[in-house]
Amino acid sequence: MEALLQNPIAVLLFQFIVGFLLLIFGAEYLVRGAVALARRLGVSPLVIGMTIVSWGTTSPELVVSVQAASNNLPGISIGNVVGSNIANILLILGLAAVIYPIAIPRAAIQRDAFMMLGTALLFCALALTGRIEQWQAGIMITILVAFTIFAFWSEMRKGGSDEAEEDEGPAGPAWLSIVQIVGGVASVVIGARLLVAGAVTMANYFKVPEEVIGLTIVAVGTSLPELATAVVAALRRQSAIAVGNILGAGMYNILMILGVVGLIVPIPIPEQIIRFDMWMMVFVTVVLLSFLLLRGGLSRPVGAMFLAGFVAYTALQYYGVDKAMNAVAQMSGSASPAKTK
């Protein structure tokens, strides 16, 4: 046992495993407690899904990004947000569609779909300046608050939800919901600390750039609550829950997480994210929304294509985006013979 504790790889794996478990179960109990409390207060289930569930499942990304920014690791902070949005679309919705094809009315997601695309484009505009300043972060938080209020108002105008809540028992005592919320937050905070510490150790040990760690391992790890939600929703044939959670998480990842982090400290944007990853995020967002709005959902083959895209994206990160771009440039140069006449 003592020899195991002296092994840096074993300690690193322990940090990641415990950190992931605390994040997953912490977010699960946070969402469960928040939903139960909201139901007890009589809030519409649709509004709960748009706000509390999305806020709860993005809480790991929030804590990890704040922790990374506090430790002067902007690559992990920004990479976590961008990577999580990419993973949410390609990995999570791809897997959900493979389990059961996603079909959803266009009108039901139109507002949130365009809002998600708008937040992605807003991030790109701010990132091109080289850093997110505190006043820009303040604008992001303001947009989030305004959209949330508008979403509540527009849903309440419809007279709440007429949908029957299947498989839902009594909401339970309020004190139990509060305990779940507090315990979930504490678990997420501790798990995030272990995860960031493990990510830093891994970056140093394997000489991997911190933004690559943030874009892949940390991003997927903190997206596991969304993954669990989407898989369960797919198994229960609840496509709207899976899609709604991902659309909401995509907005909150940018507006809430980067807004909160940016209010604490200005965030410099890593060069690789400006050159490649944020455009990849916009691209997969446009592809997703095209299928949802034009075709009304995602079929199993499309889901498989999304999963293959995520595998390729992850492999590209570890191969090296710069190396891949240079190789493509050399190939295109050699394929175009110089004209001598």
Strand line-up across the major sheet: 1-4
| Total number of distinct structural domains | 1
Average pLDDT for all residues? 79
Shape: globular
Helical/strand content category: mainly alpha
Beta-strand residue percentage = under 5%
How far the N terminus sits from the C terminus, by CA atoms, comes to 74 Å
CATH topology: A middle domain of Talin 1
Query: What is the overall number of helices?
Result: 14
Give Rg in angstroms.
21 Å
Beta strand count:
4
Oligomer: single chain
Structural notes for this entry:
The chain has 341 residues and is mainly α. The protein has a single domain, classed as A middle domain of Talin 1 (Up-down Bundle), CATH 1.20.1420.30. It has 14 helices and 4 strands. A two-stranded antiparallel ribbon has the order 1-4. α2 runs antiparallel to α3, α5 runs parallel beside α12 and α7 packs antiparallel against α11. The N and C termini lie far apart (74 Å).
